[in-house]
Amino acid sequence: MRPNRRWWTVAAAAVALPILLTGCGASIPVLQPKGPVGHEELKLIIFPLILMTCVALIVFAIFAYVMIKYRARPENADYVPPETDGSSLLETIWTVIPVLIVVAIAIPTVIVTFRLQKPPTTSTAPAKTVSETPAAASMAAKTKQKPLVIYVASAEWKWLFSYPQLGIETVNYLYIPAGQPVDFQLTAIGPMNSFWIPALGGMEMDMPGEDLGLWLQADQPGKYLGRSAQYSGSGFAHMTFNVYAKTPAEFYNWAANIKAHAPQLTTAKYESLLKPGQVGTMAFSGDINPNNYNGSKDMTGMPGIASGMPIPGTVSPSSNTSSSSMSGMSMSGDNSSGSMGGKNQ
Amino acid sequence: MHFANTFLMWKEGPLIWISDVLIALASLGILFVLWKFKKFKWLWTEWLTTVDHKKIGIMYIIAALLMLFRGGVDALLMRSQLAFPNEHFLTAQHYDEIFTTHGTIMILFMAMPFIIGMMNVAVPLMIGARDVAFPYLNAISFWLFFFGAMLFNLSFVFGGSPDGGWTSYPPYVENLFDPGPGENYYIMGLQIAGIGTIATGVNFLVTILKMRAPGMTLMKMPMFVWSVLITSALIVFAFPALTVVLGQLLIDRLFNAHFFTTTGGGMPMNYVNEFWIWGHPEVYIVILPAFGIFSEVVSTFASKRLFGYSAMVASMVAITFLGFGVWVHHFFTMGAGAAVNSFFGISTMAIAIPTGVKVFNWLSTMWKGRIRFTLPMLWTSAFIPCFVLGGGVTGVMLAVAPADYQFHNSYFLIAHFHYTLIGGTVFGMMAGLYYWWPKMFGFKLDEKRGRWAYWWFVIGFNVCFLPQFLLGLMGMTRRMYTYPSGLGWWIPNFISTIGGFMMGVGFLLIVYQIVWSIRYGERDVTGDPWDARTLEWSLPSPAPEYNFARTPIVHSRDEWWYIKQGKYKQEFVESEIQPIHMPKNSGRPFLLGLCMFVAGFGFVFEWYVFVILGLLGVLAIMLRRSFEFDYYHYIPVSEIVQTEKSLGRL
């Protein structure tokens, strides 16, 4: 029973695990980002990992050497270890080197931290595969040369998305144009959540009374999984949504289609959506009216409105379409709308 | 029937029924054994009323091990649930309660008492003192912790457990989203135990600063004493923040205030800030004493002086200051802005520098030593690689703010802090437990059985938490009660569950080892079974009530080592044994804890009769104490001489 034996266990596990998993075809979205933000962040995962692993390997090597060489054995029973108090030279060396490593990591950290506050600049617009309908073209004109803004609000336990420039809302799924930066504006109605699409880049919290921003961009069309990374009660594990990155033409065709065919979101429908529970995917059309909704009597204590920030799906009470199904849309049911246990129900 | 359904939770299913039965059986069993062996009086006079730091320390450690069991069972329930995708062994609500109690218990009712237990057992002996500065307060600290922990644990079978996570962020934990007594249990359990902890911090700060034996300057203190001094300072400055934030949350919940809701001008971020102003130093409160223990263990079992003592002290002081300046790294993704995130990212990375210095100094201490692989040394040798990997490498990675946007609240983070808290704190406490066990009880724990436990636990630990780094990168977040198939998550989760159960086996083997060793363990007749270096080993095992018959005069660090080497002769302040002034036992600390428990219970259910009765009891006990003048006694010389003779010391 030598202490270095567990080394082999650790090393074997470390090597075997990724191999095992890649063998199963599993994806590791954080390590395989599909957008410029995720790529920036990946660089800052790999770089410190390499630097720190070098340090760790040195420590492990010294540690293994010491453990083996200087262990007590019957042969060295009469060995008397020397009296040493310390060594200014050595201690200075292993203070200065970590300082240099920290500086080396700190510089890119600061640069990227500031850069991620701004929209990604690399634009890799995918090739057109379909042509835009006239309605779509007029919508596209509204956001041309501008980032697409999407308001995100979490409620117990669903995601409400609103496209203020386009006048449409979705619940529990997102369409975004590939190659275009997306400006997510996050808030919460009720408890905090955290908006996370690992394949596109990092997360940001959404909090009641706050309006936090997150820039993300998809380079290529694809389907990515998003979820909440902040616990918010018993339905939290099911707070997932799919993100469909499409070519701009496909995206605006989709948006025009929603605008034309999806039902209007009424205040009553909106308030029923805010009640704790899970729902499936939905889409609505409607005009954003930033200072319309201020929380109903049922939902006191749940205001999700930061000053000046519109809430998704706020419409004039005159429209009274009660249907909420996405008839005509070719959406797969991504979230089961099954009931779930929880004391709030 | 309504009462039973609401409070005894009879509808909640078999887990609760089994627990009810087990608790009833265990309680009856304990009462029966006490009655059978007529030990009630012994329990009361020897333990419940004691003000002896050694016994209080032992009680802390026993409580910590019991809580390790409870928190461990919680962990295994969670790991069982996550072993396969789409599993519904636990409901979401039940799972939420379990991870909440697991986290809270492990940090506050396992790690904290374990550390405070070690402090109590070792510190006065190491500095040549007869007790802590305030023995009566020390007993109060223990009973406040104990009853706080009991109140928290009661939630499982009476009224419902908290389900807001151990960080308990509003607004989720406010009444609107989280009604019921669960969160009140969290608040009151932590509040009562926290008050006790603050008192412990004050107590040890004063003990170490004022009660060292003559000659022991600050820079001659053993490294563990230094770590406790720093920890006590951290406690005194950090815990009041917890007291305040829990008080605010309680007022929010009981009296509908709006400290942390957005209605009425409240702000949830205030909670998050206040919580982590306590919470981040808390991380160092639980790791620094472990560093101290490793320092003692390494120099003892390598038979070498600690390398770079003053650098070690400087590192710990640096960590203390940095520890208070980095709390924002717990919420990089809460919109603090680039400048703030940069500042806190860099200050967090900077902690790696003093920590690195400590690691290299431990390695240098072992360099050219003669390392004996006893159990304390084995746990220390497991600590170094685990901590370097889990604390150093991944800690710096998490400090990189943009990268943290991908790690935050994911299993990567879970793996990281379990590597530091288990690989650092738990391994450290195990090392300390084995190291000081002979001093506490007069016999050694069996090495062979201990090695079995060690391998099961340490290998299981790595099998459990290494895959979780990967799970985080795959997008799995913490506190998910279930996950769908097809994401590639189940293999790492399954491996992790196997590791968790291996740790469970390790724990059972430790219990077996202790039970076995009580009967057959090697008795320590020398008082110095490890050929160690510091003053506590100059005493018989276990040390007598008064610790030192005569107060030693200290000449250097590693005093006892040099006395054994013949470099100095042991000197004492008193030339002859004199009567020793000691505090009297008292039942009031126990009763005070009980009254706090009653008051806390009243707050939990808003039954204010209990609150008033409990607080009146607390007040009465404090008043009684203020008018007490006959609280000490002298141990006569004849008795000391007799005790010392029976221990072979005269």
Structure description:
The complex is a heterodimer of chains A (345) and B (650). Chain A is an alpha+beta fold. Chain A is 33% helix and 19% strand. Chain A has helices spanning 5-23, 36-69, 88-115, 134-143, 248-261, 267-274, and strands spanning 148-155, 158-163, 168-171, 173-177, 182-188, 193-197, 201-206, 212-216, 222-228, 240-246, 282-285. Chain A has a 6-stranded mixed beta sheet. A 5-stranded mixed beta sheet of chain A has the order 4-10-9-6-7. In chain A, helix 2 packs antiparallel against helix 3 (88-115). Chain B has 650 residues and is mainly α. Chain B has 21 helices and 4 strands. Chain B has helices at 2-7, 14-36, 40-48, 53-82, 92-126, 135-154, 182-210, 223-255, 268-301, 309-324, 338-350, 352-366, 375-399, 401-407, 411-441, 447-473, 490-520, 559-564, 588-605, 608-626, 637-646; strands spanning 552-553, 571-572, 580-583, 632-635. In chain B, the strands form 2 sheets. A two-stranded antiparallel ribbon of chain B has the order 1-2. Chain B is globular. The termini of chain B are far apart. At the A-B interface, helix 1, helix 2, helix 3, strand 7 and strand 9 of A face helix 5, helix 10, helix 11, helix 12 and helix 13 of B.
Number of strand segments of chain A: 11
| SSE pattern of chain A | HHHHEEEEEEEEEEHHE
> Could you tell me the mean pLDDT of chain B?
93
What are the secondary-structure elements of chain B, in order, as H or E?
HHHHHHHHHHHHHHHHHEHEEHHEH
Assembly annotation: heterodimer
How many alpha or pi helices of chain B?
Answer: 21
The spatial strand order of the largest sheet of chain A comes to 8-5-1-2-3-11
Largest interface: A-B, 107 and 107 residues
Which descriptor suits the 3D outline of chain B? globular
| Main sheet properties of chain B | 2 strands, antiparallel
| Rounded radius of gyration of chain A (Å) | 27 Å
Number of helical elements of chain A? 6
Helix content of chain A: 25-40%
The helicity of chain B comes to 55-70%
DSSP strand (E) fraction of chain A?
15-25%
Q: What is the terminal separation of chain A in angstroms?
A: 55 Å
Subcellular location (chain A): Cell membrane
Pfam families (chain A): COX2_TM
Domain Cytochrome oxidase subunit II transmembrane region profile (chain A): 22-120
Protein name (chain A): Cytochrome aa3-600 menaquinol oxidase subunit 2
